[in-house]
From TrEMBL:
InterPro entries: HNH (IPR002711), HNH_nuc (IPR003615). Residues 193-248 form the HNH domain. The lineage of its organism: Bacteria, Pseudomonadati, Pseudomonadota, Gammaproteobacteria, Moraxellales. The keyword Transmembrane helix does not apply. It comes from Psychrobacter saeujeotis. This is HNH endonuclease. GO terms for molecular function: endonuclease activity. Keywords: Endonuclease, Hydrolase, Nuclease.
Length: 271
């Protein structure tokens, strides 16, 4: 599946490019897990945003894939959000209109309102036509795998550091600190501690609102092969206390259940 997603300069949606994408339910069918997406922006509306964009004109600015989709518990309108994987920004804008012709095919019946839809299914040819206007490099026989020449070096680097020893620990902390996985995990699990329920915003008010640690729940010793992280199953929010306790012993990382049991045992003694 191939889909265009629109990002607005100013928006009520808590979107983060390459991390998360919020959308109304009607677009769910175009954003199934694994869908190849192209990021799009319409024409500039407010001058102040000009410097944050690749072009003032309607344009495409990156590719990515849909990770998973979730019902947005924060939304009153039953909206959804998707985690985004494999984001590669374009270095230059790809204009929506090339030599007075649109790159997207607009069906006759949709001529008057086509651009109103922020999420638009496209065919495979249109996807590759848009991507062919950039300097991305195809990396596999699979037609949809691309890599940016700018990030090839980093990619090699990360593969190498993985093949050395002491890799696992580094990777675990990298995932725990990576802002993309943090945002995704918090969107999915919320920002209260999964072990004790502590919420920084409730306790310390707005000064600490949204503060939480994100813990990687695969034990360090079992973490051997590089894989794409799944923020739903691999990451969990923990308060600073519980996170310290979980990592207290170097040779063993406590599971969330074990941590919860410690807390329960302790409170039982008191009652
Ligand atoms: Zn806690
Ligand atoms: Zn941790």
């Amino acid at each position: 599946m191939y889909t265009i997603i629109t990002e607005n300069d100013e928006s009520a949606w808590a979107d983060k490019t390459g991390f998360l994408y919020h959308f109304p339910k009607k677009y769910l069918k175009h954003l199934e897990p694994g869908t190849n997406i192209i990021y799009y922006k319409g024409s500039l509306k407010k001058k102040a945003f000009s410097k944050t964009r690749l072009s003032d004109y309607p344009h495409y600015f990156g590719i990515a894939k849909i990770g998973k989709t979730y019902l947005d518990k924060e939304s009153s309108k039953n909206d959804f959000f998707a985690t985004i994987t494999d984001f590669i920004p374009f270095r230059e804008a790809v204009l929506a209109k090339d030599d007075s012709k649109y790159l997207e095919t607009i069906p006759e019946s949709r001529k008057s309102n086509y651009w109103r839809d922020g999420v638009r299914a496209i065919d495979e040819n249109t996807y590759h036509l848009i991507v062919s206007k950039t300097n991305l490099i195809k990396v596999s026989e699979q037609k949809t795998a691309y890599i940016s020449d700018a990030i090839t070096e980093n990619y090699q680097d990360s593969l190498e550091s993985f093949s050395e020893g002491k890799k696992s620990k580094r990777y675990v902390t990298t995932y725990e600190r990576n802002p993309k996985y943090r945002e995704q995990a918090i969107a999915i699990h919320g920002n209260s501690c999964s072990a004790c329920g502590f919420n920084f915003g409730d306790f310390y008010e707005s000064y600490a609102e949204g503060f939480i640690h994100v813990h990687h729940i695969v034990p360090v010793s079992e973490f051997e092969v590089p894989k794409e992280i799944d923020p739903e199953t691999d990451l969990i929010p923990l308060c600073a206390n519980c996170h310290s306790v979980v990592h207290r012993k170097k040779d063993k990382t406590l599971s969330i259940v074990e941590t919860k049991n410690l807390i329960a045992d302790n409170s039982n003694q008191k009652t």
